[in-house]
Amino acid sequence: MMDYKTAGVDVEGGKEFVTSIESNVKSTYRPEVIGRYGGFNGMTRIPKGYKNPVLVSGADGVGTKVKLAKLMSYDGHYRYNRCIGTDLVAMCVNDVITSGAEPLYFLDYISTGRLNQESLQHYIEGITEGCKLAGCSLIGGETAEHPYIVGSAPQDDLAGFCTGVVEEDMIVDGSNIEAGDQIIAIPSSGVHSNGFSIINRMFFHQVLYLRDNLDLLTPTRIYAKEVRSVPGLVEGMVHITGGGLPDNLPRVLPAGRRVRIDYRSWEIPEIFQRIQKAGELNDAEMFHAFNMGIGFCMIVKDHYVDRVCQTITDSWVMGEVL
What we know:
- This protein is an alpha+beta fold.
- Helix content is 31%, strand content 22%.
- The strands form three sheets. It has a five-stranded antiparallel β-sheet, covered by helices on one side.
- The longest helix is centred in the middle third of the chain and has 18 residues, at 117-134.
């Protein structure tokens, strides 16, 4: 007799998982969260004090970095899924905060070929940690079990959705950027969650070995705290994600503006040097596929440079607007 479980979907297991993560989820709640856990939706009030609040939303995923975490779970340990969970929050939050928004809440979507409580728990622990770092509430999500073809390996995929809020007259959109403004760089924690299709191909061709490069799984840095620390001082902000510096910096510039980067102002982290050597990649491709050690940029007026760099102590001036 056929039933849902023999078809590959464990409904009861899904219910048990939702129950098991309740404490993790509730630990992220801001005071604005209302409604009960486990309902059909998540609800949150807009924080007090806003006169003309604007909601800012973003969605993203972790791409093929999840495959590396899966490779490292061969011995039944899923601890590397934690970094993937944090990555998921970071990739969404870091986009939303470029507008100057305060992250309010986050939702996740996890698709898995086979429901594994321990594996999923580690994802949620990482998501929880990311939400705490960002200062936002995890108010909902979906875990979907998609049965895989017999004989194939179960695959996971994750997507995230973040909403923030900003006062309308405090929106940072780059419209006031002008020649002479300075570009401040804030370092990445590593490769973050871009360029992993190249990296996975290197593993496939055995020109790079995971056990010698576990720092590839370092979670993406979340920059919400840094953005909150310099309110009103920034004209434009850039999350260095897919496309690297060449594709992302122009996204915030007014028409007709360009930038000059001092590539001598920082040392390329060693992990990128290893990737470049193993893959025999040229400099242009490296800067297009990877962040090269810079995870976030702020564009500020010259007279605010010292103040911003003193507040964000690991930042530096890496260029200017022309």
